[in-house]
Design goal:
alpha+beta, Helix Hairpins, Heat Shock Protein 90, five-stranded antiparallel beta sheet, 12 strands, elongated
Length: 420
């Protein structure tokens, strides 16, 4: 969730709670004021009736006002009380039962005793309460909407410099050699952040250049002495005066030199991939690429009597650097050949945006957690993975392709699939 959305949600929840509590308190305060007003009206009418009864006795046994709001009747004995209560009564004007506040009390005038019932309609008070409630609801919606819009506008204005800085960071690529530039915002916190980012990015760029130059120089300088060592060892191996033991030792040194040269090239390749030094991407038909690389390696397959089968159900296109695509397929096919047994099988299947390269080999599943790590050893076999699968994994990672492994039906499956 974006920061603006999170702040707006919390703001709206807080305002809703505040308005809800204030609305409930205000509603009951209005009710209390209305009740007090009704009580005062009834008390005023009570005093007026008592005053009139004391001036003269009621000529009849009972009396009721034309609007049925006052009822008076004689009592045989005096019993003093005054009771407030609520009741429902039929109103002729409204044609329905409406709520009333009732005051029942007794009064005396000489030897005459009376019971008086006063009724005061609460309908106006209920209408007033509903009017207040409706007004508060409308005011709440208006204030909430206004504050939400104003808050969103202020937020976008206040955080616009920060969003510009994020845009600069997203577009910056340390391998391109371009320096990032941040505008002055006039806000101290954002200017301090931009200065810090500027210095940090410059340091990253400097460290990258230094590391890149060191890697390239070290690789280049190593290749020359390695080539000299290889040529010297080749000359020594041609010396017929060497004993068999000397020949074996020199041959081992020669093979180690070749492995060291290939290792140096592989590490340099990994470094270039991780530093995103391969540019010029285009859409590549991996079905055609697989078939061409299988033809290229056909002699090696025949030498080990490997049966290679290709099944193409759908065209598979990935966008990447052509050289990296070739290295990727070469490494996966070479891995399937190297870890296969004689008279084994390699099966390549092309499905919808997915290529699976399967091979026979060890009749047990490999440790997938360390399969694509550099020089990781398999727990079951103790053999090192080398760099082939690591290079393939880094190529896929740099081009948003998923490289996964699973083992079923005696076959080791390596799957290339476009990230969703």
């Amino acid at each position: 969730m974006r920061l603006q959305a999170k702040i707006n949600v919390r703001f709206l929840v807080l305002m809703f709670l505040i308005f809800s509590v204030a609305g409930v308190v205000f509603y009951y305060m209005i009710g209390e004021v209305a009740n007090r007003n009704v009580r005062e009206m009834l008390e005023s009418r009570r005093a007026y009736i008592i005053l009139n009864l004391q001036k003269g006795s009621l000529l009849t046994d009972s009396f009721s006002s034309p609007d049925n709001s006052i009822f008076i009747r004689h009592m045989d004995q005096s019993r003093q009380y005054r009771i407030y209560s609520d009741t429902l009564a039929y109103d002729q004007a409204e044609k329905e039962l409406i709520p009333f506040r009732k005051l029942t009390f007794t009064a005396s005038s000489g030897n005459h005793h009376y019971k008086v019932v006063l009724l005061q309609s609460l309908l106006e008070m209920e209408d007033f309460r509903m009017l207040i409630f409706t007004f508060l609801g409308g005011l709440f919606l208006f204030v909430m909407t206004s504050l939400f819009l104003v808050n969103s506008w202020l937020f976008s204005k206040a955080w616009n410099p920060f969003l510009k800085s994020l845009s600069v960071l997203n577009s910056w690529n340390f391998s391109e050699g371009k320096s990032a530039h941040f505008d002055t915002t006039g806000i101290d916190e954002f200017d301090q952040l931009n200065d810090l980012l500027q210095n940090m990015m410059q340091k990253i760029r400097t460290d990258f250049v230094i590391l890149k130059e060191f890697t390239e120089n070290a690789s280049h300088e190593l290749q020359t002495p390695l080539a000299i060592i290889k040529s010297k060892l080749e000359l020594i191996l041609q010396d017929r005066s060497l004993s068999d033991e000397q020949h074996r030792q020199i041959q081992a040194a020669f093979e180690s030199t070749i492995r060291l040269s290939k290792l140096n090239e592989a590490l340099l390749l990994l470094s270039k991939i991780e530093n995103q030094q391969f540019v010029g991407q285009k859409e590549i038909d991996f079905c055609q690429l697989v078939q061409s690389r299988i033809e290229y390696l056909s002699d090696l397959f025949d030498l080990k009597k490997i049966d290679v089968t290709v099944q193409i159900d759908s065209l598979v296109l990935f966008t990447m650097n052509p050289l990296l695509a070739e290295i990727l397929i070469n490494n996966l096919l070479s891995n399937a050949l190297r870890h296969n047994h004689e008279n084994g099988r390699i099966f390549v299947h092309a499905g919808y945006q997915e290529i699976t390269i399967s091979n026979t080999g060890k009749n047990q599943e490999l440790d997938a957690s360390g399969l694509f790590r550099r020089f990781a050893k398999q727990v079951s076999t103790g053999e090192s993975n080398g760099l082939g699968l690591s290079i393939a994994f880094e190529i896929c990672k740099a081009n948003h392709i998923l490289l996964s492994y699973h083992y079923t039906d005696g076959m080791h499956h390596f799957v290339l699939k476009q990230e969703s």
